[in-house]
């Protein structure tokens, strides 16, 4: 059975992700106590189900600590992927304020009285500490600056991509909207010539031929790509030796429209023969923008 486990910080978009998987044909369960997951998987497998998506998070209380062991057990019999959603504290506070929902660890909302917190910010930080170990078990997505339709597209493309070994993700972003929290490595390309200052190129992106030709004519751009490639070629074997399943390389320019997009695309093509590669663009992504590099 293919099992997608969705976890992460409350308010980061787990409901959006679960709904996307339900639309993709997964049998979905929300807020399942961690200890029941093996029993549920066994029951649904006997019933002929082949795809299961489950959301497990801080609402499970103290049982969340058992989740790593549960995942290890499940992986002996099923194909299990973990998707960890996170967001900045500022973004989360804004979302809870807009929806007027209570955080599961705030006040007496928690199932465990010992986990209560005095304020929303305290509850968010307490939850980060509680779930810190889970973030390393799978692929992280920072939803701080993502629209819901983009998150749905990213989730669907992620789970459609069957893989073994290391999945290498190149993500372009704009520094003016903040660093992506899901990045393992960040490269700053703001020092490179900027197509933004050419009024003909400003409305385009790094996916468009005129911008590509502009950047390909700049030696510094090509040198930057070569240097990032050399770094990754040297250290990818170490990440593989560390049994990493996912590595997200974030490439940032000022607005996330031109330079970072072009460089992410170029790096994706360069490494397609050495690793399983996905390329995504945080600032320009339409619903179908996340795609596998051929």
From TrEMBL:
Q: Which intervals hold domain RapZ-like N-terminal?
A: 1-160
Write one Pfam family the protein is assigned to.
Answer: PapZ_C
Where does the RapZ C-terminal domain lie? 168-284
Recite the UniProt keywords alphabetically: ATP-binding, GTP-binding, Nucleotide-binding
* Residues annotated as binding GTP: 57-60
Q: Which residues cross the membrane?
A: none
Record's InterPro entries? P-loop_NTPase, RapZ-like, RapZ-like_N, RapZ_C
Residues holding ATP: 8-15
GO MF terms here are:
ATP binding; GTP binding
| Classification via HAMAP family | RapZ_like
PANTHER family (alphabetical):
RNASE ADAPTER PROTEIN RAPZ (PTHR30448:SF0)
Name of the protein: RNase adapter protein RapZ
Origin organism lineage: Bacteria, Pseudomonadati, Pseudomonadota, Betaproteobacteria, Burkholderiales
What is the name of the gene encoding this protein?
A: rapZ
């Amino acid at each position: 059975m293919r099992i997608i486990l969705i976890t992460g910080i409350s308010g980061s978009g787990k409901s959006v992700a679960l709904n996307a998987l339900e639309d993709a044909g997964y049998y979905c369960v929300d807020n399942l106590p961690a200890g029941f997951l093996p029993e549920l998987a066994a029951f649904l497998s006997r019933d002929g189900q082949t795809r299961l998506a489950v959301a497990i998070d801080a609402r499970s209380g103290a049982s969340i600590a058992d989740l790593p062991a549960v995942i290890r057990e499940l992986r002996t019999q099923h194909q299990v992927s973990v998707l960890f959603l996170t967001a900045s504290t500022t973004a989360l506070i804004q979302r809870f304020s807009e929806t007027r929902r209570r955080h599961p660890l705030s006040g007496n909302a928690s199932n465990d009285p010992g986990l209560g917190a005095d304020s929303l910010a305290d509850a968010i930080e307490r939850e980060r500490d509680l779930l810190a170990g889970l973030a390393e078990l799978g692929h992280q997505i920072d939803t701080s600056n993502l629209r819901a339709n983009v998150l749905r597209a990213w989730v669907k493309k992620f789970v459609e991509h069957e893989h073994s070994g290391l999945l290498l993700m190149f993500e372009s972003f704009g520094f003016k909207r903040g660093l992506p929290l899901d990045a393992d490595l960040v490269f700053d390309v703001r020092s490179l010539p900027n197509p933004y200052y050419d009024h003909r190129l400003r409305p385009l992106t790094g996916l468009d031929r005129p911008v590509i030709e502009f950047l390909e004519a700049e030696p510094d751009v090509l040198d930057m790509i070569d240097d990032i490639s050399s770094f990754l070629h040297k250290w990818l074997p170490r990440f593989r030796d560390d049994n990493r399943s996912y590595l997200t390389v974030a490439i940032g320019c000022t607005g996330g429209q031109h330079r970072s997009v072009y460089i992410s695309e170029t790096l994706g093509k360069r490494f397609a023969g050495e690793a399983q590669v996905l390329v995504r663009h945080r600032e320009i992504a339409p619903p179908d923008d996340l795609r596998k590099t051929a």
